[in-house]
Amino acid sequence: MKIKIILPLVLLFLISGLSPLNGQGLILQKNITVEEHDVQDNVVSFGGTILVKGTVTENVIAFGGDIIIEGEVGVAVVGFGANIVLKSSAEIKGDVVSIAGKLDKHPGAFVKGDTMTFFFDTPEVFKGIFKNGLSGLIPIILIFKLISLVFWFILAIILAALFPRQTMLASTQLRTAFWPTFGVGFLSIIVYTGLIIFSAILTLVLIGIPILITLIALGIAVKIFGRIIIFYFFGESLTQAFNKKNPATIATVLFGFLLVSFITLIPIIGSLFSAVISIMGWGVIIRTKFGTTENWLKKKRLIFIQAE
């Protein structure tokens, strides 16, 4: 229940916070129907039914419930614990991803990208764990780690589907200007930590409370989007190593997620690696302004020189 509440709030915060994306339409409700001849940009449902008879230019995402596609989807169809039905008239120009749900693809349905299915009976697994008690079955620390991995896995799919251009641009900058980006990330974390401490002190006079809340929200946004870019960065490196050209954005992020998750599970090395990728994530977010520009710090500098 908590995950169902947190995820949409985080998603809405990220969508509203990235100003270049404010123009993209998003329908977020339980039951959604895109009638024939209707056109929508993105549709997201929690526990309801999405019926697409017309056109969705970008993404269809559902948590639980059903996705029924009779028309056209421009980027991706993603279901978490949802039943996905692709009718014979369905046309998906991107990927179809089914996680812990069922996928029913009728003859004649067209999927241009990849079709990925990850089926596991999550509710029954967790019911068995809590029924028999945690002690003796699995360490508590491992449970938190698994929950964290599931959380990042879901966010990786959502953000890769909603912001593919921003993710690829930021990853490219990380690859072409690694050390400047790393340096910006290191300094950003130091400055951010100082601001958090300063605002915490200011809470004694009330004025620091809204500042602290804003800084925490900003830090969460940077952490989340930065980590997705890191997933794409390592996923792209992995696919290039296997000579796979132009993989889908979602598939690349998933490959990176698996690689990063595996490394972070290694004792000591995993902790050091997590610290490094956190610095990388902060640096690429600050340097590219959430993947919307190549290097906005450099632009500011040029304007200052011209003004002189």
Task: Considering the chains and any ligands shown, give keywords for the structure.
9 helices, 308 residues, 9-stranded parallel sheet, 5-stranded parallel sheet, alpha/beta, disordered N terminus, disordered C terminus
**How would you spell out the order of helices and strands?**
HEEEEEEEEEEEEEEHHHHHHHH
> What class, by secondary structure content?
alpha/beta
Q: What spatial form do the alpha-carbon principal axes imply?
A: globular
- pLDDT < 50 stretches: 1-24, 122-139, 300-308
Give a short account of the largest sheet.
9 strands, parallel
Question: Number of helical segments?
Answer: 9
- Structurally, how many domains make up the residues? 2
Q: Would you tell me the overall average pLDDT? A: 78
Distance between the first and last residues' Cα: 57 Å
In total, the number of strands is: 14
Which percent band covers the strand fraction? Answer: 15-25%
* Radius of gyration based on Cα positions: 21 Å
State the helicity in percent bands. 55-70%
What topology emerges from the helices and strands here?
Blueprint: H1 2-17, E1 26-28, E2 32-34, E3 39-46, E4 49-52, E5 55-63, E6 66-69, E7 72-73, E8 76-80, E9 83-86, E10 91-92, E11 95-99, E12 102-105, E13 110-111, E14 115-118, H2 122-132, H3 140-162, H4 164-176, H5 178-202, H6 208-241, H7 249-264, H8 269-288, H9 296-307
Question: How would you characterize the overall build of this protein?
Answer:
The protein is globular. The longest helix has 34 residues, at 208-241. The strands form two sheets. Strands 1, 3, 5, 7, 8, 10, 11, 13 and 14 form a nine-stranded parallel sheet that branches. Strands 2-4-6-9-12 form a five-stranded parallel sheet, with no helix packed on it. It is built from nine helices and 14 strands. Helices cover 55% and strands 19% of the residues. The chain folds into two domains: 2-124, no CATH class; 163-307, no CATH class. Helix 4 (164-176) packs across helix 5, helix 4 (164-176) packs across helix 8 (269-288) and helix 6 (208-241) packs across helix 8 (269-288). With 308 residues, it is of the alpha/beta class. Mean pLDDT is 78; it is low at 1-24, 122-139 and 300-308.
